[in-house]
Amino acid sequence: MAKIQLNGKKIVIKSNYSILDLLKKYKLENKKIAIEHNGIIISKSNYKKKNLKNNDQVEIVHFIGGG
Amino acid sequence: MTKDTFKIADKSLKSRLIVGTGKYKNFSETAKAVQASGADMVTVAVRRVNILDKKKPILTDYLNPKKIIFLPNTAGCFSSEEALRTLRLAREMGGWKLVKLEVLGDKKTLYPNMIETIKSTKILVKEGFKVMVYCTDDPLLAKKLEDNGASAIMPLASPIGSGLGLQNKINISLIIKQSKVPVIVDAGIGTASDATIAMELGCDGVLINSAIANSKKPILMAKAFKDAVISGRNSFLAGRMKMNNFASPSSPSSGLI
Predict the structure, then answer these.
(1) Which of A6, A32, A66 sits opposite B65 (nearest CB)?
(2) At the N or C end, where does chain A have fewer CB atoms within 10 A?
(3) Residue A44 per-residue DSSP state
(4) Using CA atoms, how far apart are residues B48 and A44, in angstroms rounded to an integer?
(5) Predicted ipTM?
(6) In order along chain B (257 residues), what is the average pLDDT of each group of 10 residues?
(7) What are the structural domains, with CATH classification, of chain A?
């Protein structure tokens, strides 16, 4: 188990959970999104490789309406 | 007559109207208004995904970035750091290099902080972005942005969302005359005739959001703006008549009975 902060909210995930696992959990793996892991942008090719650990901070962003 | 083309960085656009996608009642209305406007470029903002509601509809379900050019913006950013972070994430999302930069300086007027804006433009251009820059209507600062590699200059007509229309035609004209990159009047346009006036001054395009989204019938207003921009452009290309202080009869004065 690991506690991480996702988009400002504390959540608990299993150990050895990758960014791809996290995206699947929220059904976001096929959406147009971008990810920041502890302040660093993660490229799509690294979603599977990158495992999350305790106290990690993850931001998942997408496009919304704006002027 | 040569064809009247409109190009920003490496993108050729058919319409000189760019529309924002904020403030609509729902995404369906957004999509219909965008279609009615005839715009081939829309601005979009970057925000956190709502992780608590997986079923909530999202913008890209209604507007396809393969069919319409998404112009990611930095609306709501009050520092260079925030703006850079936002645009780097936007680039990661879909490889967008053409972006709209706005760094705000004051919550009440949403006036751009030009010191931070120039600083951010320099960095983004260095990183390979094509930057369209929201700015004040100061010709010197607009020139400074161009010198620092901005792909388009986007001076405000009046404060964002104010609907006050074009408040300083002289400054906008000075910016148009001096700029070698496209000048797009951004922010503050209130109604279709404001867009026509901006286009008649010779600006290359206008960016409209609130004036369409906050009108009583946004889809009809989108169409009004489409026509207004075309009219203004044609009027500019045609060149207006000279103003006279006295009358000049429209019918011949010879052969009167």
Answers:
(1) A32
(2) N
(3) G
(4) 17
(5) 0.91
(6) 85 95 92 96 92 81 90 93 94 89 94 96 96 97 97 96 95 97 96 97 96 96 98 96 92 88
(7) 2-62 (3.10.20.30)
